[in-house]
Amino acid sequence: MHLTDVTFRYRRRSRPILDRVTAGLAPGDVVELTGSNGAGKSTLLRLLAGLTRPSSGTVTARPAVVGYAPDRLPTAQPFTVAQYLTHHQRIRGCASWRPWAACGSCPRCGTGCFPTARSLSSTAGPTASPATPSSK
């Protein structure tokens, strides 16, 4: 998936939440986005998932399956984020959202491995770094 000069604004003349972001993600990449409140983390994830369109720029080569969990689940939701994604994978008959799960050779936890993660950093917006396997 490729983002090329992606800018996002909530209103036509408002300040950009994301400004000319260019990045690439390979299939199976896992990233962790960090940033302060309002930095654009959730907006970037919605753009990557195809739930929101950029104000300008392009998002290309989006795979048919993109695992996305909203940052706010209903309080009565009986799922963790992993259970939520697994449940939606099951009911939609999609490919696995966990590309590392089948490997079984992760030196950190022994249960799976993470492909090389790519940076999605920008000067004003969210930053990304490789995710580490959880113990669950």
UniProtKB/TrEMBL annotation:
Keyword Repeat: no
Endpoints of the signal sequence: none
Keywords, alphabetical: Transport
Pfam families: ABC_tran
Domain ABC transporter, residue spans: 18-66
Family under the similarity heading: Belongs to the ABC transporter superfamily.
Protein name (Swiss-Prot/TrEMBL): ABC transporter domain-containing protein
Taxonomic path: Bacteria, Bacillati, Actinomycetota, Actinomycetes, Streptosporangiales
